[in-house]
Amino acid sequence: MSNEAKSYKGLGTKFIHAGVEPDPSTGAIMTPVYQTSTYVQSAPDTHKGYDYSRAGNPTRTALENACAQIENGKYGLAFSSGVSATDAVIRLLNPGDEVIASNDMYGGTYRLFSKLFEKFGIKFLYINQQDIKNVSDAITSNTKLIWIETPTNPLMNIVDIAAVTQLAKQHKLLVCVDNTFASPYLQNPLDLGADIVMHSSTKYLGGHSDVVQGCLVMNDKQLRDDLYFIQKSSGAVPGPQDCFLVLRGIKTLHVRMQRHCENGEKIAKYLRIHPKVAKVYWPGFEDHPNHAIAKKQMRGFGGMISFELKDESAAELKRVVTSTKIIALAESLGGVESLINHPATMTHASIPKEERIKNGLKDSLIRLSIGIEDADDLIEDLSQAIG
Ligand SMILES: *Cc1c(COP(=O)(O)O)cnc(C)c1O
């Protein structure tokens, strides 16, 4: 199957056609689920491009090509989860190497770095990357990688990707951007100079809360070969059925994201004037500290919103998050249905409390993943829950 980008004018056309060619044996317009572990060879080492499904599978190839194209990259690699994609990137490093990470990022990324990789002698610095001077100050002769997540989870801060990649190039450092929150509809880090884009495809790419998966996209052939070697050797590959689901999800990414953005804006504005709400974190507000950068590097502001109640008691927080009727209390994000989450005890529970508080993640913070339902219904639901 070819990985040649067709000529597209619009993002929608790209998302619908990326990676998918009619099936060569039948003409099926949708790439079939090649539910097979192995492939018959006509002679030893003579095969049709596939020898074993850990190393490659046609459904996965279609998805990997799609991921590459939607991120304006040359190469895509799919993994069995977002964290296994992150894990593959860190496996590029050696003991003694240093990574500049963020003090406001997905809790599972922090857990992977601090609990699994630190003991092998890789050092991680968790800093506030919104100020480029902090990033610059953290670089040492051992620094190899800058890990960016923007918008950050859950405080919705924005990191200037182009500024960081410019700095990284001067020091010959790799930059990997976790683009899960923005999705390729809103932001393309490779175009801003990043070396690798990572996604938890579980979220907006899949979009229907029915699959766990991750991917990496890059332009450099050597980087691709090194990451492919890691993918094949450590084996965290997704099955073909899951690849099919993400391929299907990508086809509607643009229409879903348009609605996520519209609903996100309506709900952020609704919460901001609610008398019981103390603060709303959403990069679309003009007075958001990084609004200008968000406007520069993103095509919209998305459907992820965090907020704090004026009443900071644990009882009030619990009452609100258990009172929504349409919006479900659950981890994860990016699906068609809206979710409410309490980061301190759910998604970010693996970050030590002192560390969390120091970085501005209060116990009273509530995170919303706004889905694509009718905004009026979501507002009514929040209204009866907050009271
Ligand atoms: C969910 C998530 C991950 C981890 O992905 P999984 O698919 O759950 O392994 C990484 N980064 C961000 C921003 C996420 O939201």
Layout of strands and helices, then pairs:
Elements (H helix, E strand, L loop, with lengths): L10 H7 L40 H13 L4 E5 L2 H9 L7 E5 L4 H11 L5 E5 L4 H7 L4 E7 L11 H10 L3 E5 L4 H4 L9 E5 L13 E5 L2 H14 L5 H11 L2 H20 L4 E5 L9 H7 L6 E6 L4 H8 L6 E2 L9 E3 L11 H6 L6 E5 L5 H12 L1
Helix pairs in contact: 2-9, 3-4
Bound molecules: pyridoxal-5'-phosphate.
Pyridoxal-5'-phosphate binds next to helix 3 and helix 4.
Short key terms for the protein model shown above:
7-stranded mixed sheet; Aspartate Aminotransferase, domain 2; single chain; 2 domains; binds pyridoxal-5'-phosphate; 5-stranded mixed sheet; 12 strands; 14 helices; Aspartate Aminotransferase, domain 1; 387 residues; globular; alpha/beta
Can you walk through the features of this model?
The protein is of the alpha/beta class. The chain folds into two domains: 11-250, Aspartate Aminotransferase, domain 2, CATH 3.40.640.10; 253-386, Aspartate Aminotransferase, domain 1, CATH 3.90.1150. It is built from 14 helices and twelve strands. It has a seven-stranded mixed beta sheet with strand order 1-7-6-5-4-2-3, sandwiched between helices. Helix 2 (58-70) packs parallel to helix 9 (240-250). It is globular. The model has no long low-confidence stretch (mean pLDDT 95). Residues 81-83, 106, 108-109, 149, 153, 178, 180-181, 200, 202-203, 212, 214 line the site of pyridoxal-5'-phosphate.
CATH superfamily of the largest domain: Type I PLP-dependent aspartate aminotransferase-like (Major domain)
Under CATH at level 1, the class of the largest domain stands as: Alpha Beta
Query: What's the domain count?
Result: 2
For the biggest β-sheet, the strand order reads 1-7-6-5-4-2-3
Q: Separation of termini?
A: 55 Å
Distinct helical segment count: 14
